[in-house]
# Entry
Amino acid sequence: MYRALRDDLVRGRFSPLDRLGEERLAELYGVSRTPVREALARLLSEELVAREDGGLFPYRPRFEDLHGLYELRMTVELRGIDRVIEDRRLEHAQDILRAELERWTRMRAEPPAPGPDFIASDEAFHAALLQASGNPALTEALNSVHSKLRPVRRLDPWTQERVRATIDSHLKIVRGLLAGDLGPAAGELHLHLIRSRDLVVERTGQAVASSAMARAIRE
# Structure
C-alpha cells in the first residue's frame, strides 16, 4: 500500500488539491483503512504528504520555498556537466544522449499538447542528462526535487508556444553535449532552468495573490 501510494504521488496521479482521505484511499486501493493510515504516516514523515486545513494533501511547496528548490535543481543539474568538464577522463554516455536527441527531434516535428504528459517528458529529459553524466546520486537527487516541484508545475498553465520553446532548448542542450561543446551546453541549460523558475514563481505568486484576495472578499 505504501509503495503504491508513494509511486502515485511521485507520478502526479493526485492533484495538489485532492484531499487524501483514509476511506477514499482504502476504496481506491482495495485495502482496509489500517494500511492506508500507516502509509500516510510514512509519507507525512517523508514530506510527500502535508497536513493542511481539512486534512492531508499531496505535498505542495510553499511559495517562499520555490527559489530554494530551483537553486538546488540548478546546482544538481549543472554539476552533471561540470564534473565532465573538470575531469576529461569522464564523458557523457553517448547512447543516452542520442536517444534523447531522437526523441525530442520527433517531438519537434509533431509538438505534443501542453499538459501533465509533457511535464513528465520534460522531467525524464533532465533526469536522462544526469544519468548520462555517470553519477546516479545526482539523478536520485534531481528526482527528489522534481517530486517536490511537480505539484506547482502541473498547476502552471503551459502554452503550445512554450512547449515548442522547451523542445528547442532541449535540442540545443543535447546537441551541444553530443558535440563536446560542454560550456555552451551548460550555459543553455542554466538559462533554460532560469526561465522555468521565473515562470513558475510568477504564476504561483499570481495564484497565491488571487487566493488571498478571494479569502478577503469572503471575509
Confidence is low (pLDDT under 50) at residues 211-219. The two ends are 41 Å apart (CA to CA). The longest strand covers residues 49-52.
